[in-house]
């Protein structure tokens, strides 16, 4: 039998689909004939990014790309807001989602070891750990996705967990929690598949904000110092990792690294690896 495109006609929902890695995943899924729903913290930006996606595929029915806001920093209403989003995205459970992707991450401070407080140590967990955990809870009812190996949930970690940049202790801890969450969920939600993509330095709006602070030369050096490819990854590169984890029905509890070989780079003496 001819190999099937497993994303054609699939419905993919992306938390964080309004920017960076998640927007790249949405674009990749549409290029494969999937239907895509994106989410971000506020509706105006969601609408703007849905229009942008539609503009890339002018022959596609507009309904193939939609989006709804869900502010994942709102701890108090988080579970209700996530449930409301799934209700809207599936017409009350009538049109189930096939694959859920989580790339949302807010900008938070970077507490340093000598100044961290109980509050700042906990702050980073809200959007990057508690939110994907509550998404899993909502999925576990089976109302919005079929809990079979055909469907999947893909989270996002980071190589900073394995080789923290100087001053990046707390992000390493926050994202390290995601690694544990993925292993546990893959087990507890079986045969539904749960996996994680581990990005190195990917040239997104988030990274661009940091690059703007350090200047072009330092940016080029940073790319060289943190990859074997002398480059940053692009959202369309790492989107393939998420696509693979959706398509491979034998991938569960998998960690797929997309980092240009960052963990294999031999640091030269005296070179700083700081993100600035
Ligand atoms: N880029 C890298 O080099 C890199 C490396 C390792 C790990 N990561 C991690 O990968 C994730 C995605 O990174 P990125 O570079 O793609 O970042 P990005 O371009 O800044 O995108 C972040 C996404 O998260 C959403 N988001 C932020 N706050 C939210 C909130 N309160 N509620 C709901 N959604 C919210 C944003 O939506 P709105 O703006 O619409 O609210 C946006 O879609 C982050 O967790 C990041 O730490 C990135
Ligand atoms: C739009 O989505 C439908 C349903 O998932 C799919 O059959 C169709 O191929 C998609 N259209 C395009 C142009 O991608
Ligand atoms: C963005 C979003 O979904 N916000 C809603 C979260 O839940 C509260 C309480 O139900 C609503 O007031 C917000 O509009």
Automatic annotation (TrEMBL):
Gene3D superfamilies (alphabetical): NAD(P)-binding Rossmann-like Domain
Residue stretches spanning the membrane: 12-30
UniProt keyword terms in alphabetical order: Membrane, NADP, Oxidoreductase, Transmembrane, Transmembrane helix
Keyword Hydrolase recorded: no
Keyword Transmembrane helix: yes
One Pfam family matching this protein: SDR
One annotated GO molecular function: oxidoreductase activity
Signal peptide: none
Family to which the UniProt record says this protein belongs: Belongs to the short-chain dehydrogenases/reductases (SDR) family.
Classification via PANTHER family: DIHYDROANTICAPSIN 7-DEHYDROGENASE
Stated name of the protein: NAD(P)-binding protein
Native species: Paraphoma chrysanthemicola
